[in-house]
Design brief:
Elements: H1 3-35, E1 42-45, E2 50-57, E3 62-68, E4 71-76, E5 80-83, H2 96-106, H3 118-122
Antiparallel strand pairs: 1-2, 1-5, 2-3, 3-4
């Protein structure tokens, strides 16, 4: 046999081993997660249904999930895909100190720095294309730089 053929077979076997070891690790983690399910946890099933664990029957490997108040359904433990973390609510509000820090950082001043009023937004006109732009310069200013010299 050729030595290169044996080397290719060894590399293929090594790659297969590495790929299957990663899969086995993920399966072990999922099994540990499912084994520690407890009432009160919010979960998602493999089919995408969200609900709260109400009851865990260890003998039959059945989990009772409540998707809406009063609507309970029974699922096999293996059908639970992942634990759902509740969304984090942002309670941070901008205070006057934060606005003054922003004003100092961006070079604006005044008590209302960083705030916009409805009038500011309504006054802004953005054309859809160049046809809406007009040249308001007079005829004598066209073709001249700011210093008065002609542009060639």
């Amino acid at each position: 046999m050729d030595i290169s053929f044996i080397l290719i077979l060894a590399l293929a076997a090594g790659a297969m081993f590495l790929m299957t070891s990663r899969t086995r690790k993920q399966q072990r983690e999922a099994q540990n997660f499912r084994a520690t399910l407890a009432p009160g946890q919010e979960v998602m099933t493999g089919s995408g249904m969200f609900g709260t664990v109400v009851d865990v029957d260890d003998e039959a490997d059945v989990i009772t999930i409540e998707s809406t108040p009063g609507n309970q359904s029974r699922w096999l433990r293996a059908a639970i895909a992942k634990l759902v973390e509740p969304p984090v609510e942002e309670t941070e509000e901008t205070t006057a100190d934060d606005a003054s820090e922003d004003a100092a950082e961006y070079g604006t001043a005044g008590a209302d720095a960083g705030t916009t009023t409805k009038g500011d937004v309504d006054d802004l006109v953005v054309p859809d294309d160049l046809s809406g732009l007009t040249d308001d310069r007079s005829e004598k200013d066209r073709g001249r730089r700011d210093d008065g010299t002609d542009i060639k």
